[in-house]
Design goal:
Length: 85
Amino acid sequence: MAMLSNSSKDLMVALGFSLVALLLAAYFDANESFIEWSAQYEEIELDELPIAAAAIALAMAWFSWRRWRDLTLAQHALKQRLIEI
């Protein structure tokens, strides 16, 4: 049986966590509760918080991808440098 890499295990944990969060949110009608609660704070636009959270999540995913790419390029350059020595 093939061993899974750490990144594959992490992906499975993240997907599992996301599925559990989705199921709990659906069971407790979390969105509807949030909408009802945030309606009383319309003047400070609290009802826009989910959109802002989604935008932040996408920005952090982009930022992480860029850092991963930088690290991969630096690692490749280091390997090349070690081969030259």
